[in-house]
Fold this sequence. Notes:
Layout: H1 8-39, H2 56-63, H3 65-98, H4 104-111, H5 113-116, H6 119-132, H7 139-163, H8 167-175, H9 180-208, H10 212-217, H11 225-233, H12 239-266
Amino acid sequence: MRTKTxxxxxxxxxxxxxxxxxxxxxxxxxxxxxxxxxYSFNPxxxxxxxxxxxxxxxxxxxxxxxxxxxxxTSLKLxxxxxxxAAVIGTLGAVALARKxxxxxxxxxxxxxLPILLPEIVLGxxxxxxxxxxxxxxxxxxxxxxxxTFCIPYVFIIVKGRxxxxxxxxxxxxxxxxxxxxxxxxxxxxxLISPAVVAGMLLAFAxxxxxxxxxxxxxxxxxxxxxxxxxxxxxxxxSPEINALCTLMLGAVFLFVAISQWxxxxxx
Length: 267
């Protein structure tokens, strides 16, 4: 009886195709980002050509107090919203994962619904309910709206982590006399903390760059950075915006590099 053996020559023939394919995919993903970075150093406001190299746009960006204020508003909004969403989403995930409640499947589906709904629907819904109860649009309504759509990101990630845990660990702690609060503090939370952090980071990113929902629920004195950038783009792409995007991109790359370094060091 003959057995089929893999031909190494066929694998070598496919390697150039794979390399070309992956190169095209990476170019498609990162070439627009690279153009934004290049134009942030362009002396000319014309985005059609590079005329030299300058750091003037970065100097003007740091001198722009309005962008600094909107950046502070966005960071504060994201921090408050993510902190509240982390608490609510984690407690909800623990409750639904460990307790068999009536209509549990329906409750889990409704908890994840804000992710599935279009943002324009959520924005109009928030605006309708705030207008109905007579709530003045501003920072408070922004926080409420952002907490609402940030909760599902934490809930889904934490619930998936809890589902993979061995429930016998918690049962053993209960048998040894630990209270439910101590079991959660000493056993459950340390095991799910990486998932909580991952959900918070994802929720922070979604809150920080949200435009549509914030557009419907914001008010005077509560303009966020994405809304400021969006309003600036109506009159053309300013090189200051390119400089801002470059700095944000650099911060993200730095954060990823530090996290990878910490993970490698632990390994």
